[in-house]
From TrEMBL:
Classification via Gene3D superfamilies: Superoxide dismutase, copper/zinc binding domain
UniProt xrefs under InterPro entries: SOD-like_Cu/Zn_dom_sf, SOD_Cu/Zn_/chaperone, SOD_Cu_Zn_dom
UniProt superkingdom: Eukaryota
GO biological process: superoxide metabolic process
Molecular function via GO: copper ion binding
Sequence ranges assigned to domain Superoxide dismutase copper/zinc binding in this UniProt record: 40-170
SUPFAM superfamilies: Cu,Zn superoxide dismutase-like (SSF49329)
Name of the protein this chain belongs to: Superoxide dismutase copper/zinc binding domain-containing protein
Length: 172
């Protein structure tokens, strides 16, 4: 039953967005240069057409070696990122969860030199339409995302990711 509900929601979601964005069914790309005190890097976003997943790749340098760091997309500005981008009022979760915020991207893991590489094919992140992530802020956090398994208020809201270490605006 849950599978049918999920498929029904995704179909309705896609149809609703597609109907309002018929002229945006072309390739789109965007990027974000992220910076922090000692952290720099770039994320790239590519979407073949509106109904496609968005391919997100990134490389970040200066992270804590051999540690995972939460990654998310926020409303607000570079000067003042606000809550995680959540146009559908969902709970926090991991990128594999149906029930999650659009901005919940999981973790980026650093190697022993402090370089983190990220790659995901993301169904909820869009580069056009009313729920576009363009002009949103992508953030790299101090702690790994616990995907709301911690059951504390902070875990349920943000994954207990802690402070923002680096951030950048998604632009095309």
């Amino acid at each position: 039953m849950l599978g049918r509900v999920a498929v029904g929601f995704l179909s309705a979601y896609s149809c609703n967005i597609q109907a309002t964005n018929e002229k945006t069914n072309t390739e789109m790309s965007a990027s974000a240069q992220v910076q922090g005190k000692e952290i720099t890097g770039t994320f790239h976003f590519f979407q073949a057409k509106y109904t496609s997943n968005t391919e997100i790749t990134g490389e970040i340098r200066g992270l804590y070696p051999e540690k995972k760091h939460g990654l998310s997309i926020h409303d607000g500005s570079l000067e003042k990122p606000e809550k995680t981008f959540n146009p559908f009022g969902r709970k926090h979760g991991g990128p594999w969860n149906f029930e999650r915020k659009v901005g919940d991207l999981g973790n980026i893991e650093a190697d022993k030199e402090g370089v983190g590489r990220y790659k995901i094919s993301e169904p909820y992140v869009k580069l056009s339409g009313p729920f576009s992530v363009l002009s949103k802020v992508i953030t790299v956090h101090e702690n790994p995302d616990d995907f709301a398994f911690g059951k504390t208020t902070e875990s349920l809201e943000t994954g207990a990711v802690g402070e923002i270490l680096a951030k950048g605006v998604i632009t095309n």
